[in-house]
Design a protein that fits this description.
44% helix, 410 residues, disordered C terminus, 2 domains, Rossmann fold, six-stranded parallel β-sheet
Length: 410
């Protein structure tokens, strides 16, 4: 892709509005970081400050001191954790957000890139209406927040307005696009899937073997891995139950759970009750630089997510990370998982509410090394298509074409 000369953007301010950012991270925040650090001109990330929050403070200081290429981080955003148009506290925080945004942008033409429809998209619409009409709005949609919006009449109305008034809504999957269009039929929705740094997964075999030995299992044990927050919809519990039943069949299986979350005590108790303590490792949150090693050291990535209330899996960057590592995934059939995992090609799709389906998928892959290798190779080919450099260029092209109404030469 031919990117226009740098001075093409000299008079445009790009600001990302996001309540949360590194070191507090999720898939949506990783998307923002990987896409915008590759942006062809400077981008300000306006977010909240964690310096007074115990461990997060030291992690933040270390992160902010690093080189983030096109990104500059400003941590002044007030935390809006309750959207209530009838609350004076909400309006006070909103007005403070508008003043900070105006100070950063001045009166220059600008683009506000909003992590979500609420509160960030609402903030952006207010800013455009009250402070700078020469402002374009890009709003991201990830899936679950659209479903959350439907649980509240006020949120539903506000989210519909945000999607309708945004210059472009960037959905992370076809599934998410459908949810947005159901709520706001006239929204201008484009799909940009998340990505993966494929080069990071090109890890020497000896390093992978040394990492795997940390877990303490014999070489013939098939290692399952889930890399996610421990929350109910990620469905670790189904994997643990399936593991217990497959152990009774004599299959040599082990399970690594990487991440933190509110489900951890319940899952540990389940492991203990099933007598699986020897075969399950809770390894905590894995640093970003260590993730490729962890994926490459495993044999099967398994996260058969389910929809729980309004919460669903919009896409799932971890599935692309597993693909880049050359291991197959077992994913759920809800949300955008079927776009991240190609059933029968890069992994298997199951109904995560049915333990037998989860168990049969694990058994099928665990017993067939050749199938795992074939799906792993297919996964690597797929992951190359979603390398962050290509995802960032695709997102840039959408913003260029739809907001500035100019066409890039590709």
């Amino acid at each position: 892709m031919n990117i226009p000369p740098y001075n093409y953007y000299d008079d445009i301010t790009n600001i990302i509005l996001t309540q949360d950012f590194f070191p507090k991270i999720g898939g949506a925040h990783l998307f923002l970081y990987e896409v915008y650090k590759r942006w062809p001109n400077p981008v300000v990330v306006l977010t909240q400050d964690y310096s007074n929050i115990d461990e997060l403070g030291s992690q933040q200081a270390k992160f902010d001191a690093s080189d983030h290429r096109s990104i500059k981080i400003i941590r002044e955003l007030p935390l809006i954790d309750d959207i209530n148009l009838f609350s004076t506290s909400y309006w006070s925080k909103l007005l403070k957000t508008l003043r900070i945004t105006q100070r950063i942008s001045g009166k220059k033409p600008m683009i506000l890139h909003c992590l979500r429809a609420f509160p960030e998209g609402i903030n952006a619409l207010m800013f455009k209406a009250l402070k700078n009409k020469n402002c374009k709005i890009v709003t991201f949609a990830h899936g679950e927040e659209v479903l959350v919006a439907k649980t509240s009449k006020q949120l539903k109305i506000l989210t519909k307005i945000v999607y309708s008034k945004s210059n472009v809504v960037m959905a992370n999957s076809n599934s998410t696009k459908t949810l947005v269009k159901e709520l706001a039929p006239n929204a201008n929705v484009k799909i940009v899937h998340p990505g993966v740094d494929t080069r990071a997964f090109d890890v020497p075999e000896e390093r992978v073997k040394a990492y795997r030995r940390r877990w303490g299992w014999k070489d013939d044990v098939v290692v399952l891995l889930t890399m996610s927050r421990m929350e109910a919809r990620k469905n670790h519990a189904a994997v643990i139950k399936a593991l217990g039943e497959l152990h009774e069949e004599g299959l040599p299986l082990a399970y690594v759970i990487a991440g933190e979350g509110e489900e951890e005590p319940r899952l540990k108790k389940m492991v203990s009750n099933l007598g699986l303590s020897e075969w399950v490792r809770f390894v905590g949150r894995i640093p970003e630089g260590e993730k490729p090693l962890c994926f490459c050291a495993a044999d099967i990535h398994v996260m058969p997510s389910i929809q729980l209330g309004p919460m669903t899996e919009g896409f799932g960057i971890v599935f692309l990370e597993a693909a880049a590592a050359g291991i197959p995934s077992i994913a759920g059939k809800v949300g955008g998982q079927s776009e991240a995992v190609r059933d029968g090609v890069t992994g298997l799709l199951v109904d995560g509410t049915k333990i037998d389906e989860v168990k049969n998928a694990i058994r099928k892959l665990a017993q067939n090394r050749r199938l795992r290798a074939e799906m792993g190779q297919n996964g690597k080919i797929l992951a190359e298509k979603y390398d962050w450099s290509k995802v960032s260029a695709g997102h840039f092209r959408v913003v260029e074409n739809l907001i500035f109404e100019k066409m890039l030469v590709c």
